[in-house]
Design goal:
This protein has one domain. 28% of the residues lie in helices and 19% in strands. The chain contains five helices and seven strands. Strands 3-1-2-4-5-6-7 form a seven-stranded mixed beta sheet. α2 runs parallel beside α4. The model has no long low-confidence stretch (mean pLDDT 90). The chain binds iron/sulfur cluster.
Length: 187
């Protein structure tokens, strides 16, 4: 995997003060994307052990309450295996810190167990994506839609257009129904 940057003190991509990892590479190419430099899979920097250790160390600071993974696209086939690896490590080291993940896919596209196929390689990557979903706290899903003025709103928090949902993943999985996160209402 490659990555674009690590933002050490991030207040925009999730609730509270967090650290954000922007992975490199995205197939969606949404018009108006706030990070087009992350589209090229050969751009950015190599995700080395040193980079991972740096990210893990920053995530462990006591004032960091939230860890966000975005991009680029964390859940494309190219990035998902290493994203799962880092999430597993973060959860093991910092079980109380909330993990946010931003994706251009919809929750339904990602977490549909019926789409498992006879192709072993396809199934393997789908299972990796399912494990990622089952490990995170919040999923901001859907592509950014600048051209649709009904959906674009520069004032919404934690997302770019109103089609993007902030999904409370543990509540969604336990209810088998999408549960949106409402910061004023503890689920
Ligand atoms: S999915 Fe995200 S990173 Fe990819 S083009 Fe759309 S807004 Fe940009």
């Amino acid at each position: 995997m490659r990555y674009s940057k690590i933002r050490e003190m991030d207040v925009s991509n999730g609730e509270g003060l967090g650290v954000s990892l922007f992975v490199q590479g995205c197939h969606f190419h949404c018009r108006g994307c706030f990070n087009p430099e992350t589209w090229d899979f050969s751009g950015g920097k190599e995700w080395t052990k040193k980079a991972k250790d740096t990210f893990i160390e920053i995530a462990g600071k006591p004032y960091i309450k939230r860890i966000s993974i975005l991009g680029g696209e964390p859940l494309c086939d190219e990035n998902a295996p290493e994203v799962l690896e880092i999430i597993n490590e973060l959860k093991h080291l910092y079980p109380s810190k909330k993990i946010w993940l931003y994706t251009g896919y919809s929750f339904e596209d990602l977490y549909n167990k019926n789409i498992l196929s006879d192709n072993l390689a396809v199934n393997q990557i789908l299972k990796i994506k399912h494990k990622i979903i089952e490990s995170i706290d919040y999923l901001v899903d859907g592509q950014f839609q600048l051209e649709n003025q009904d959906l674009y709103n520069e004032h919404i928090i934690w997302a770019g257009s109103t089609n993007q949902r902030i999904i409370h993943v543990p509540a969604t999985l336990s209810n088998s129904k999408i549960q949106l996160y409402n910061p004023k209402q503890e689920l």
